């Protein structure tokens, strides 16, 4: 089964706004494009989702059943995408510190050790650093591979 995500998004927007015009504006679509998405979704489901009357729309019985589930699908999808983004960001933490070479030689090893302990916590990680000719040290942390 293929899920029509754009059709569901259009359906939710129309149901929440009560009109194709308002939903099209919200989604930055033409009313024709929005109508096409809904027609395609309704054809795939085999039933109309809206009662259309004089520039106003209301949900059919099928639309009433679908709306809370469609909202939940988008909430779950949004949560899943946010979790993936957080995991990716946490796995790519990077800190850049610029110091004079004399300070780097004496202070940076302990600073790096303290920073590594703070960044890593209990998760296995790789810590790397390099001295750069400009006087900067680069330290990064990534989760285990």
UniProtKB/TrEMBL annotation:
PROSITE patterns: HTH_LYSR. GO terms for molecular function: DNA binding; DNA-binding transcription factor activity. Keywords: DNA-binding, Transcription, Transcription regulation. Signal peptide: none annotated. InterPro entries: HTH-type_LysR_regulators (IPR050950), LysR_HTH_N (IPR000847), WH-like_DNA-bd_sf (IPR036388), WH_DNA-bd_sf (IPR036390). Gene3D superfamilies: Winged helix-like DNA-binding domain superfamily/Winged helix DNA-binding domain. It holds the Pfam family HTH_1. Residues 1-60 form the HTH lysR-type domain. One of its GO terms (cellular component) is cytosol. Belongs to the LysR transcriptional regulatory family. This is HTH lysR-type domain-containing protein.
């Amino acid at each position: 089964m293929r899920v029509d995500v754009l059709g569901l998004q259009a359906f939710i927007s129309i149901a929440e706004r009560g009109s194709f015009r308002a939903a099209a504006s919200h989604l930055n679509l033409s009313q024709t494009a929005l109508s096409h998405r809904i027609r395609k979704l309704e054809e795939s489901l085999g039933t109309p989702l809206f009662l259309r009357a004089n520039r106003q729309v209301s949900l059919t019985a099928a639309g009433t059943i679908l709306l809370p589930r469609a909202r939940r699908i988008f909430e779950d999808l949004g949560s899943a995408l946010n979790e993936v983004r957080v995991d990716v960001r946490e796995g790519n933490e990077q800190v850049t510190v610029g110091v004079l070479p004399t300070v780097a030689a004496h202070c940076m090893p302990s600073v790096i050790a303290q920073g590594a302990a703070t960044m890593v916590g209990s998760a296995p990680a790789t810590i790397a650093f390099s001295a750069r000719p400009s006087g900067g040290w680069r330290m990064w942390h990534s989760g285990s591979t």
